Here is the input.
Amino acid sequence: METKIRSRAIFILIVVVACILGIVAFPKNVQELKDNVHNRIHMGLDLKGGTNLVLQVQVEDAVNITSGETLERLKDELKAKNLPYADIQPDDDKTQNPPIHRILIKGIPQERSADLQALASNQFSDWDLVRVPGDDTARLLVLKASSAATIRNQALMQAMDTIRRRVDALGVVEPTIAEYGQGDFELVVQLPGVDDPSRVKDIMQSTALLELKLVQDGPYSSREAALAAHGGVLPPDTELVPGTESGNEAWYVLNRIAAVTGRDLTGAEPSHDSAGRPNVAFHLNREGAERFGRVTGANIGKLLAVVLDNRIFTAPVIHGQITDSGVIEGGNFTPQSANDLALVLRSGALPASIKYLSEETVGPSLGADSIRHGVIASIVGLLAVMGFMLVYYRGSGVNANVALALNLLILIAALVDLKLFAILALGVLAAWVFSPLVGGIIAAVGLLVTFAVGAPSPGTFTLPGIAGVILTVGMGVDSNVLIFERIREELRLGKAVGAAVAAGFEQAFRTIIDTHVTTVVSAAILFAFGTGPIRGFAVTLTIGLIANLFTSVFASRVIFDYILSRREKGAALSI
Amino acid sequence: MEFFHEPKIDWMGIKWYFISLSLALALTGIVSMVVHRGLVYGIDFRGGTVVNVKFAQSPNVDSIRQELDRAGLRNATIQGYGQASDHAVIIGLDLQTTTSSNVLDTGKQAVITGLSNLYGKGPKGKADFNNASPQTVADHLTADDPLGAGVKGLDAATKTYRDLAEAIVSYRNAPPRSGLLADFSDLRNVPGVTPAVSSALAKDFYLSSYAITNTKIVGPKVGSDLRRQALYVTLAGLGAMLIYIWFRFELIYGVAAVVATFHDVIITLGFFSLLNKEITLTVIAALLTLVGYSMNDTIVVFDRIRENVHASKRQEFSKLVDHSINQTLSRTILTSGLTFLAVLSLFLFGGEVIHGFAFCLVVGVIIGTYSSIFIASPIVVYFYQRLTQGRMSPRVKVA
Here is the structure.
């Protein structure tokens, strides 16, 4: 009996030491101890201040681009295969969600339809070729749902990467960028310490689609004027693009095919010309440099438009052949805007535009306010509960309060390092199912690895999370009440102290499991539903209640057994 | 110490008084919701913009309203909150005036511009210290290097000024300043701040007489998504409870527990409606926690009913339930009382942000305990009396 208590007490001690080490690590002096605690406790945005953005990637943009490219490619292929057709046009079904992308081909001669079928299945494997009811000479090329889904997901991932690169380049400390919501291609971006998000938002949102295109003619003062100059029809393979020149609208007719695009860039940085005016220098990869050299060499004296997000940024004259690097100037650069443009060009274009859905900024003083309130409420709640337990249960109240303190210690350690909690939980489970020895070995090996590897995987403290801590205090001590009341009841029935304690723990255990399961189930549903702070609450409450099973049932029992083993025969239990 | 020594209360005999009370409370709540045309939803659900502002002096709400009117924000609500000495105001804009089609923060920027028109913009080129984050302060200090820490290398200097900036900002945020510093020379109370530091800050920053403590903008999509989700999640919570109790006890116990919990949710929402309190995202979290917690007391009673049914098969069922409630009364009251103590301290000291959450739990814990005795238990009794005409106790499977 004695050794059983001792080995259990040692197990509890290991847990305590592991938790304390998890929170403070291995400090060499008091200052380091403070630093460690400070660094290891990760606070959510609602406590430390910062900006939380929810945005939606307009992934349909990316699918539109693909289907536009496919349409052009299809025309080329039909021409190459000498397949006659009357008309080809996009015919997207936008009534569906998500929209179905289709290309309508009309006027295919009956005898050539097999050739079209062969072409489609060989060259356009992401698409299905289907008949059009009522028109034997028409076919629909329909983008496969699976292919469209791949394009959308790739666009989302690429947008996420691009946004991460841009936010990192801005020097935001510990940003979070993650998927959000239920498959609506939404992202949540958390920017700690950012209290004026307008600049970050602009930089994140800029599509940064850079194209350098040769100018055919212009500028014109309006779209109509440009069209009128060409008799209403643009020359083949050209397009009209707007820009601004000394405050007025300026339209140019450009080559549809770009000489180089942002994809050919290997770098971009803010720079300035000899007069000190800011500009942006860029560098091209080998292919891009070759193409750019060819185009600029053949068109000296003509205009080259720098098109950013389908607007002409500037259209300077080509003075000579340019190959691997060039400069974007003009356009009223300030040092800041030159810097921002270089940054977005470096980070690559967004594959699709983004739209902001919600924005929250917590100022640093509100966060500090919340921490102060949370800490005061926790301490008052804890003292009130502990005081009550002491008065109501006297000696056993001490037991309950020790268990409660242990509960809180484990909870805080778990929030500092979730991995640590997982290992301890695994150890306890193994100790229960197999033997304390197996559990002890699993826990010890796990802890050694954790401390050796170092980097904790932190949970996050949020204000609702602190509320979860307080709720854990109130609900955790309920387990002790259920056990103690049962022990009292058994004592009233005339059972001996030892038997009453054993019966009390045994009988109350089932009730405790039931009550904990209901609360953890609602916390789990809450976790699935909520984000950020709400999830912090759900996690805290769940961990607190799981730890409570260990402290109120196991640890509290060990304390009782220890007291009983040292008690004189026949002495009453203080409960 | 002991509150209840073997009570012998005839619970099922007095149940109608309490069921009537419940019906009256629920009805009042529902009538209030109808009169108010639904619940008051927070910004999370209805969309729009809120800006929380804290002023050094008591703000002139009328002039703020005029300024916002001039900016075209006609439906703005301006309310004081917290203690009067906080001089805190919350400005709310509805969805129409908050966003233009593509830009989310039109309303927010208009409010910020309006406030700086009213209370002064500060000298050109200077940043507002009272609205600056530790990062901003640290950046300025590192650039100015008033302590000459640059000689120790960039990393060392960055760390020095980051720590110093955090100390300075937490001094600014602590009461009685609570985010509004009146004079840079006050910073001498912060360890590590030399006159050189104060004057470096005074060179780069000015001190405004107000601080924007919080802004939140919710677009139309997020709001409508959330309303739907909040409803589903509450129903999912109730459904999960039904299945669990069904699995652990019997279907009728699950039904009784869920009816009781639904009763708790309706009455709690009724209180929110009567007191015109906003339903926010954290209130939904509290409501779902309540769904889980309300089960706790019900389970404690049910567990004992099951145990007693198993022990004595001859007793009349309603008497057996009375006996079970009496046996578990002290722990029902104690466990709820202790949880109540914890959430009460959250309600009293937890601050403005968590207020709705704490209120929901304070009300919910009381109602939840009450409903275990007066709603859940009578339903089980009613069901078995109909089933057996009260002759004998039903069989209950023992888990």
Remarks:
- Chain A has a mean pLDDT of 85.
- The two ends of chain A are 23 Å apart (CA to CA).
- Chain A touches chain B through 80 residues (CB under 8 Å).
- Residues 532-566 of chain A form the longest helix (35 residues).
